[in-house]
């Protein structure tokens, strides 16, 4: 998807890469749900805090890490070192209902790493800002923070991006303010969804037919794995933590895992064929997965060493939906 220039003063997308070398890593954030709490109970490798100084940051929520989000990262990588900048704690501050994440927190780095071949062999890193600390900033104050406090060289945003207190700023104002602070601004056209079902569109008043996290959630709720795969640009991966095997039932080449072990959003209840069970970083075993009201049941024709793992994942094949 090409950038959509609306002003002659916009800087060319093909800017010179900054000479600043930034180490890709993740910034620790506050817990946002029971799913985050489960992950917080386990240690994951950390490379230390991120600095986005001199980089190009893509702005958004980045819940699903879908192909629209990937397009923002691609455009950021064309202009410099790419980062994803998003806010955490919005649900708590705004009183929204807490929901399971589409991508497990511990799985986000893997997804971003898979984008590297789209982004000039550079995997985008994430930088999180506490929403409570910026909630009352005006559009001008927000851009000032990006320029003076974070030291970013430029920003990338979708054409429908809103920012500032009560979403007062739009894409045009973002470009204007960035010019005032000596930053580059790139506005990217929406990645449109090929599936223009009225049922999907009616779920979100902001929906204009673009790929969105709302559409991903809807597809998962319908058990439409093929559609989920199209929106994500990859297979959906459900991550589960096996805490001292509590509630986990092992029998031959099958394992039953209670839903309380889920770290992210599963598809709807039903039988899913052509799945893959992942143990650790390298072991992959073909399997089928059945989700009922309380458990996920995994069955394979091969022996799977469940006893030796703390985490298992299921990747849902794109050829089938729920039976």
From TrEMBL:
Keywords: ATP-binding, FAD, Flavoprotein, FMN, Nucleotide-binding, Nucleotidyltransferase, Transferase
Domain of life: Eukaryota
Record-annotated FAD synthetase domain positions: 53-196
Top-level EC class: transferase
GO biological process, one term: riboflavin biosynthetic process
Pfam families: FAD_syn
GO molecular function terms noted in the UniProt entry: ATP binding; FMN adenylyltransferase activity
The keyword Ribonucleoprotein appears for this protein: no
Pathway terms, separated by semicolons: Cofactor biosynthesis; FAD biosynthesis; FAD from FMN: step 1/1
EC code(s) of this entry: 2.7.7.2
Coiled-coil regions listed: none
GO CC, any one term: chloroplast
Protein name, entry field: FAD synthase
Species this protein is from: Aquilegia coerulea
């Amino acid at each position: 998807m090409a950038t959509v220039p609306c002003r002659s003063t916009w800087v060319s997308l093909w800017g010179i890469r900054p000479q600043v070398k930034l180490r890709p890593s993740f910034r620790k954030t506050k817990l946002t749900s029971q799913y985050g709490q489960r992950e917080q109970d386990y240690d994951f490798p950390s490379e230390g805090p991120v600095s986005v100084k001199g980089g190009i940051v893509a702005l958004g929520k980045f819940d699903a890490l879908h192909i629209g989000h990937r397009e923002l990262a691609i455009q950021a990588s064309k202009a410099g070192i790419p980062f994803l900048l998003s806010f955490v704690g919005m649900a708590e501050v705004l009183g929204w209902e807490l929901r399971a994440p589409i991508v497990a927190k511990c799985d986000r780095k893997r997804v971003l790493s898979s984008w590297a071949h789209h982004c000039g062999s550079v995997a985008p890193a994430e930088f999180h800002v506490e929403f409570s600390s910026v909630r009352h900033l005006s559009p001008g104050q927000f851009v000032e923070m990006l320029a003076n406090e974070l030291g970013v060289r430029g920003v990338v945003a979708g054409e429908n991006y809103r920012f500032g207190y009560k979403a007062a700023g739009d894409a045009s104002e973002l470009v204007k303010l960035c010019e005032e602070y000596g930053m580059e601004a790139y506005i990217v056209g929406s990645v449109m969804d090929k599936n223009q079902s009225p049922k999907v569109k009616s779920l979100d008043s902001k929906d204009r037919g673009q790929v969105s996290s709302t559409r991903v959630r809807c597809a998962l709720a319908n058990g439409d794995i093929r559609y989920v795969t199209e929106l994500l640009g990859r297979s959906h991966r459900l991550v589960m933590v096996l805490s001292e095997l509590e509630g986990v039932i092992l029998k031959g080449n099958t394992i039953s895992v209670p839903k309380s072990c889920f770290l992210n959003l599963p598809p709807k209840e039903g039988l899913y064929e052509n799945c893959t069970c992942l143990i650790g970083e390298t072991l992959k075993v073909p399997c089928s997965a059945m989700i009922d009201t309380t458990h996920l049941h995994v069955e394979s024709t091969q022996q799977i060493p469940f006893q030796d793992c703390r985490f298992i994942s299921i990747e849902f094949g794109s050829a089938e939906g729920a039976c």
